[in-house]
Amino acid sequence: MDLSATPHKRKRSSSPPPPPDSAAPIDFSLLEALEKSQHNTVETLDLKTLKKLALSLERRLNANTAARLKYPDTPEKFADSELELHDELQKLKILAGAPELYPDLVSLGTVNSITGLLNHDNTDIAIDAVTLLQDLTDADVIEDNEESAQVLVDALVENNAVELLVQNLSRLNDSDPDESTAIYNTLSTIENLIEVKPSVAELVCEKTKLLKWLQARIKIREFDSNKQYASEILAILLQNSNANQKKFGQMNGVDTLLQAVAMYKSRDPKTGDEEEMVENLFDCLCCLLMPLENKERFVKAEGVELMIIIMNQKKLCYGSAIRALDFAMTNYPPACERFIDVMGLKTAFPAFMGKIPLSKKNKKNRYKEELEERLISLIASLFGGILRGSRRERLLSKFVENEYEKIDRLMELYMRYSDRVKAETERLNELELDDFVIDEEEKYNRKLDSGLYTLQLISVIVGHLWTSEHSGMRARIELLLKQQKLTKKDVKDILQEYHDNIGDLEGPEEKERTQSKILKFISAFS
Predict the structure, then answer these.
(1) Domain residues of the chain, as ranges?
(2) What is the separation, in whole angstroms, between the first and last Cα of the chain?
């Protein structure tokens, strides 16, 4: 399995929840008040203006606090002060136009005040604070102001904004349109914080109950935009954090995700947004299958069986199921054994032979290639996980049946990826002739991107077939190599390059075990 296929930087959800349907008559008095407030807004934003806005916020905040303390049981006595506080928070949104002033905002102590308002007794004020933070940390705003954004986010983290944002989620009700929008804005703010400060991804899972909240959202059967966004945030949290992957696994997260994707085993998502959510859920599942203990949970929860059912149904999730199996079976023999025991070979090999169900959306060549690469990785995992016994014989027999058609297919793929890698190697050599300096690591990475990793896995499968010492398979492999004017040495050279570049991501013991296996193949081809 290519670990680089772990979900990369997430795309943002397309839009917040739609506002409530409102066909009520227009209140012209409100429009006049809005127009008046716009005229009063300060147009130029500099440090002097910032100080004025900060001071005004502090005054309104102090007035509101005093009124609430004086008249705790008489809301009408402090209602006006909260309207004024609302107005001040709206005015501060102008700061999103001058992110270079964020360090000054922090030094003035205003960030502390805004963060404190996330815990305000009036949910509307807390929502205002969330919306303000979302605006200030928006990706488009901070894109060219990374240092200022870092100062702001550091201050927010120090003032417990992460914890307060998650606490806020627990008191928001999706049935209220404004609060539903606030849920989206809260998740968006958390995503923005992670974008600026990636360590927030583990911090938020360590110090809050966000994972539990997201898990509850994903369990809801009905689709909505906040369930979609919850799936996206969960994928972000799991993507690069082994700690989060293990923690969510301990929370029965594997079973939660399996139940969520099982809803689509025999039906396709109804909309583009729902389809994106399902992709997010499979991204979460694949991330979760990185730690060994979660692979075990996957097998126990009959995840292998579910993925095979999804493949057999030939719906939109077909490719995603193959991807999940690839992650589950990599370096985990029990998943490989279960796959063979539940007749997975009958499902996987037709796909390997190119019989891939294609929807209108998935007719692109790249989709077919991605599935080919996944299936090659899956078959390589099977050979690596099942070393002996009747299961091994069943796997090897697949390459004998129908007059070695699967060896023909394997060598066809070998030639295609070999040609790509050769073309990329020639291109890199030409660049060097034009005085471009490319170091060996960069060269190797570019060759990997052009298909070298898949070519290496195909060569590993060929190595397994060759060392089985089946005379018919050996003869077929040699014949096909000869037809392409190649020899066993060409396969051996690819395996040698693979051996020399195996990393220790899975630990030194796994690296040594893999290298030892590759050396046996190299020796057998000599």
Answers:
(1) 46-208, 402-524
(2) 27
Task: Record the tokens describing residue 36, joined without a space.
Answer: 């008046």
Contact 159, 111 (CB under 8 A): yes
Residues 6+ apart with CB under 8 A from 517: 384
Q: Which residue has the tokens 């009408």?
A: 76
pTM score, two decimals?
0.87
Residue 247 backbone class (left: φ over 0; alpha: ψ -120 to 50; beta: rest)? alpha
Residues in the chain, how many? 526
Give the sign of the dihedral formed by CA 279, CA 284, CA 285, CA 290.
Answer: positive
CATH code: domain 46-208 is 1.25.10
The Cα 426–Cα 229 span in angstroms is: 44
Alpha-carbon gap, residue 381 to 376, rounded angstroms: 9
For 260-285, give one letter per residue: b (16+ CB within 10 A) or e: bbeebbeeebeeebbbbbbbbbbbbb
Q: Report CA torsion sign: 311, 315, 317, 319.
A: positive
Tokens coding 22: 């409102």
pLDDT in tens, the chain (526 residues): 444 444 434 444 444 444 444 344 444 454 455 444 444 444 578 999 999 999 999 999 999 999 999 988 898 888 999 999 999 999 999 999 999 999 999 999 999 999 999 999 999 999 999 999 999 999 999 888 999 999 999 999 999 999 999 999 988 988 899 999 999 999 999 999 999 999 999 999 999 999 999 999 999 999 999 999 999 999 999 998 999 999 999 999 999 999 999 999 999 999 999 999 999 999 999 999 999 999 999 999 999 999 999 999 999 999 999 999 999 999 999 999 999 999 999 999 999 998 887 766 666 678 888 999 999 999 999 999 999 999 999 999 999 999 999 999 999 999 999 999 999 988 888 876 666 777 888 888 999 999 999 999 999 999 999 999 899 999 999 999 999 999 999 999 999 999 999 888 777 888 898 999 999 999 998 8
CA-nearest of 327, 387, 383, 374 to 348 is: 374
Ordered alpha helix ranges (H), 314-452: 318-329, 333-341, 344-352, 365-385, 389-397, 401-433, 440-447
Yes or no: say if 184 and 19 are a contact pair by the CB < 8 Å rule: no
